[in-house]
Amino acid sequence: MKIINPVLRGFFSDPSIVRVGSTYYIATSTFEWWPGVRLNESTDLVHWRPLPSPLTRVSQLDLRGTPSGGGIWAPDLSYADGRFWLVYTDVKIVDGAFKDCTNYLTVADDIRGPWSEPHRLNGVGFDASLFHDGDGRKYLVQQTWDFREDRHAFNGITLTELDTATLSLKPETERRIWAGTDVKLTEGPHLYRKDGWYYLFCAEGGTQYEHQESVARSRTLDADSFAVMPGGPFIGNYTTPESPLQKQGHGALVSTPSGEWYYASLCARPWRHATEPSHGVRGWCTLGRETSLQKVYWDEDDWPRVEGGPAGRLEVEAPRDAIEMEGVPADASQHDDFTGSSLALPWCTPRVPFKDRMGTVGGGALTLYGQGSPANAFDLSLVARRWQAFDFDAEVRLDFHPKTYRQMAGLTNYYNDHEWTWVYLTWDEDRQAPVLLTAEYDFGRLVTHREAEVVLPEGTHQVWLRTQVRTGWYTYSYSLDCEHWHGIPVRFDAAHLSDDYIAQRYGGFFTGAFVGLMAVDLSGYRTPARFASFDYRELSADPRPEEQHDQRS
């Protein structure tokens, strides 16, 4: 068997991997999206099955009003003493000198839960992980953030012992164990013990194309005792722009039952329009930061190295002892008739759980009650799923009875509250008729494409909506009978829904694009919109974008 990277496609970043028996588990960041932390499992490192998220209660995670790009940063999943341990960071400020982060710990006997109420740990820095030493001691390992204007924001990797009885930290044990390299921007630390060495893995260089992973080691956990691996970085693509995988770095190490080693890393797959120059930005990562797996060996000096070099490989040999996982679909295509009483696992909501205030599901429909605008970070009725392929179609049937232009419902392609487009059904008071409009929002600038307005027949309240995404561009269309489709003559640049475009304008550029269903009622009457028969169909399983380009920067 071959591992084809990325193994988790679409927005699955900052992977933390652990093996329990013959099963591997990966936890990934969710930022401002609910539920908090995504889990996937595998027995062969090739096929991955989604699991229920561990953070499903507001008492575990309160994200209302959290800025885009805040929320859950870099969860750490581990297993010790017969139970799972999950450390996660909730970040409340994205831009500026401060982060105002809080680290929490939750535990469970079963990966599927229930997970405990969170134990508050500290706010020293984000990307915390838990290290279980061989003597029974446990330590929180974290990036240390320095807000002072005359200091570098990174102030070392800090180690603090955890009281195993109370699950609280012992602040008096806090010490810096590594100052990082000259690259700085050090984050995402994970600590391992092997053959008498403590190995510290850390991401450096930020989260864009300069991203990389460094390794340091020490015989002890004493202050400032770690020395960096020569000939680094361990993994990174900043010098290999021709690689289809980019931005590899932040991740975690795992061993197989037979003693092979693998590294789970975030990665990204950029594309560029054929007419774009080859200089400047390396490409647009509309699928966000994904998860790759690379095979690792240990050199003659007991340092870890990536097979094939720091750039990694698109195809990697699966473990010799892998137990092939069956029943995993070939792609992430989804059909949802909304017959269940809860949302299917691919669905997400921004900042708050899907509750009665937002809508209901079951009986063949998803009903959303109109709330705030798509730019609202508090009250938004949006149910969305990740883009997981460069080329896909998504469609849905909408039943909606607007009475004013302030009431809207439709299909959206959405990055965050700063950047989105949608096609929506609303009411035109001048014509006294229902209309379909398309609009785009670009960091506060709203453009409604009146030239593409569709005036619907009197009494129309049911319409089918479709989006067609083709790597660099996407469009919307509609039908009144689900047989005859009419294109809306507006073509949107998919680059605007990429991490890289958002990064030019805003600090929270960590998630990737979503396609979703949304209802708005700015009148405040919570007018319901009924969605049915949703389809998301991927058109290609090729891990490389269809729109090939010269990646030389």
What does this structure look like?
The chain is mainly β. The chain folds into two domains: 2-272 and 281-317, Glycosyl hydrolase domain, family 43 (Tachylectin-2, Chain A), CATH 2.115.10; 334-538, Jelly Rolls (Sandwich), CATH 2.60.120.200. Helix content is 1%, strand content 45%. It is built from one helix and 41 strands. The strands form nine sheets. Strands 26, 28, 29, 31, 37, 38, 39 and 41 form an eight-stranded antiparallel sheet that branches. Strand 5 (38-42) and strand 6 form a beta hairpin. The longest helix has 5 residues, at 499-503.
Gyration radius (Cα, Å) is 24 Å
What class do helices, strands and sheet pairing give?
A: mainly beta
Main β-sheet, in a few words? 8 strands, antiparallel
Helix content, binned percent: under 10%
Q: Note the gap between the termini.
A: 34 Å
Number of strands: 41
Indicate the low-confidence ranges by residue numbers.
548-553
What is the CATH H-level superfamily of the largest domain? Glycosyl hydrolase domain, family 43
- In the CATH hierarchy, the architecture of the largest domain is 5 Propeller
CATH class of the largest domain: Mainly Beta
Q: How much strand? A: 35-45%
Number of structural units classed as domains: 2
Total of DSSP H or I helical runs spanning 4+ residues? 1
Shape: globular
Mean pLDDT: 95
CATH topology heading of the largest domain: Tachylectin-2, Chain A
